[in-house]
Design goal:
14 helices, about 15% strand, globular, 7-stranded mixed β-sheet, 15 strands, Aminotransferase_I/II_large, PyrdxlP-dep_Trfase_small, Class-I_PLP-dep_aminotransf
Length: about 400
């Protein structure tokens, strides 16, 4: 018998609550609104088939070879050109999905006991990525526009107890679907600059707006005080695992060293294929088709909620982009207990508690509307309403 002694940080690692729920719901007949997966109907299969052939015919050997840690230069340039503010491609680091970006940021900025501020609620995957570094994540009171500035300022702290970072998702936030207003963005950037606290801006959903483009990113307002994260997972395909960081040059080198230690570089072939797909304005033509599809499904879900939740003390957000909708159940109702009743009725969601850094609101849940049909949405929301009525 061999004894394996785990590091202290390993004991603090935990499985994604969403991944565990997906296992629970992976059975025929379940209408799952739990996953955060983009719709496979949005994947541009023909464009990728052509790009793969072009890359192999033109640059096959290089595409299959080791490459630089920073990433494929034409892809970095394309990202810089696509962003809505002036960015030097030398500030862009290609990552293996934006989840790796979170991991790298945690590794170079967080020590055991370091404080990091997050929204209430926040992205579960970020909490999971930061956990091995053993920080203290603290939720900041938030409303429909994100972090409340006074609450943020009150929790920054001073001296050795000062928070290292504040992590926010301004656009169509996961899990709530809310969007930070222009005024709130500017106020947050100004207050962060005043208090000298770096911001981490996570923007995987920003291109998925329905009516109008979201306000200017935080990073555009203070490039030296914000690390910006983006991804091709929601606008092309998540299986490629292509994300990126835009970082101030003062910290770019350390992020690159951390990535080099993690995986040397993001797959060369994948980077070249993405660069090939997005050339000649492909995203400008492709992304509007995703927006139209997701907007239609959001509209169906909002109508179903209005119809099925009538007379129940249930509230929900009305996202103007992205993939998620947040539901607040009657006071005292536990979404985890409700999930079991919903699964009995062949419907699944994600309970809200894991999205909080402490002080969880157990009467909340997240719904995703992008991988279910209109018929499934109507049936699933009725099942959810039935489960709620059975829990009253």
């Amino acid at each position: 018998m061999t004894t394996w002694t785990l590091a202290e940080r390993a004991a603090k690692m935990n499985s994604s609550a969403i991944r565990e729920i997906l296992k629970l719901t992976d059975r025929p007949g379940i209408i799952s609104m739990a996953g955060g997966l983009p719709s496979p109907k949005a994947f541009p299969l023909d464009a990728f088939t052509e790009a793969c052939q072009a890359v192999m015919q033109r640059d096959g050997a290089a595409a299959l070879q080791y490459s630089t840690t920073e990433g494929f230069a034409p892809l970095r340039q394309a990202i810089a050109d696509f962003l809505p503010w002036s960015v030097d491609p030398e500030q862009i680091l290609i990552t293996t999905g934006s989840q790796q970006a979170l991991d790298l940021i945690g590794k170079i900025f967080l020590d055991k006991g370091s404080r990091i501020l997050v929204e209430k609620p926040t992205y579960l995957g970020a909490l999971q990525a930061f956990t091995p570094m053993e920080p203290v994540a603290e939720g900041v009171d938030s409303d429909d526009e994100g972090m409340l500035i006074d609450a943020f300022a009150a929790q920054v702290g001073t001296g050795a107890d000062k928070a290292r970072l504040a992590y926010v998702l301004p656009n169509f936030q996961n899990p709530t679907g809310r969007t930070m207003s222009d005024a709130r963005r500017q106020a947050l950037v100004d207050k962060a600059r005043e208090l000298d606290i770096p911001l981490i801006e996570d923007n995987p959903y920003g291109d998925l707006w329905y009516e109008q483009e979201p306000p200017l990113p935080l990073a555009a307002r203070n490039p030296e005080g914000v690390i910006y994260m983006g991804s091709f997972s929601k606008v092309l395909a998540p299986g490629l695992r292509i994300g990126f960081i835009v970082a101030p040059k003062s910290v770019y080198g350390k992020l690159t060293q951390a990535k080099q230690a993690a995986d040397l570089h993001t797959p060369s072939f994948n980077q070249r294929v993405v660069a090939e797909v997005i050339k000649d304005g492909f995203l400008d033509r492709h992304v509007p088709t995703i927006r139209a599809m997701y907007k239609a499904q959001r509209d169906v879900m909002l109508m179903a909620l209005e119809r099925e939740m009538a007379g129940l003390d249930v509230k929900w957000t009305r996202p103007v982009g992205g993939m998620f909708l947040w539901v607040k159940l009657p006071a005292g109702m536990d979404a985890q207990a409700l999930l079991a009743k919903a699964v009995e009725r062949n419907m699944a969601f994600v309970p809200g508690a894991p999205f909080y850094a402490g002080d969880a609101q157990n009467n909340t849940l997240r719904l995703s509307y992008v991988t279910v049909s209109a018929e499934q949405i109507n049936t699933g929301i009725k099942s959810l309403a039935d489960a709620i009525k059975a829990s009253l």
